[in-house]
Amino acid sequence: MLVRKLTEEDGEALWALRLRALTDNPEAFATTYEETLASGRERLLEGLRQKESFYVGAIEHGLIGMVYFRREEGLKNRHKGRILSMYVQPESRGQGLGKALLQEVIAQAKQLVGVEQLHLTVVTTNAAARSLYHSMGFEVYGTIQRALKMDEQYWDEEQMVLHLP
Fold first, then answer.
1. Which residue ranges form the domains of the chain, and what is each CATH number?
2. Which secondary structure element, helix H or strand E, spans residue 6, and what is its range?
3. What is the number of other CB atoms lying within 10 angstroms of the CB of residue 109?
4. Which of 48, 75, 120, 125 is deepest in the core (most CB within 10 A)?
């Protein structure tokens, strides 16, 4: 398995995996499948062209996992980065791919001058993801009750932070 920063050449595979993520685990993402289709492939692929945001992917006979990093904007927020859209396809889970993706995104973020902390949110019902983030040193600093809602279903989210050395 190869874990690396994704490029524009990975665009089609990234788009397909993003749509699958939204289908497999709609509760884990703030956007819906329909919203993503409506905003278009180009919007997602723009993240591959940015200087201070990027996707990291796990590749083994195709793209099987992904995570997105975005540095915060503005002078007072540039010391923070966000980890977003983490996903590993179900048949590849439990093999350490999530950890490998996080290790690579953390290593890449550390190369950006001035980034001191990484933030993420995770739905409280996702025990595997919460356990992974805790094992990587992320700490909970807050909970947003009823953060996400689809139909009449609500999900709480934990806010987590990792302070970089």
1. 2-163 (3.40.630.30)
2. none
3. 22
4. 120
The amino acid that residue 42 corresponds to is: E
Nearest Cα neighbor of 162 from 96, 80, 92 is 80
CA 63 – CA 88 distance, rounded (Å): 9
Q: What is the pLDDT of residue 111?
A: 94
Residue 37 tokens read as 């289709």
Please measure the distance between the N-terminal and C-terminal CA atoms of the chain and give it in whole angstroms: 28
pLDDT band of residue 50 (cuts 50, 70, 90) is confident
Q: Position 62: which residue type?
A: G
Cβ atoms of 6 and 55 closer than 8 Å: yes
User: DSSP letters along 21-85, please?
Assistant: HHHH-GGG-SS-HHHHHHH-HHHHHGGGT-SSEEEEEEESSSEEEEEEEEEPPSTTTTTEEEEEE
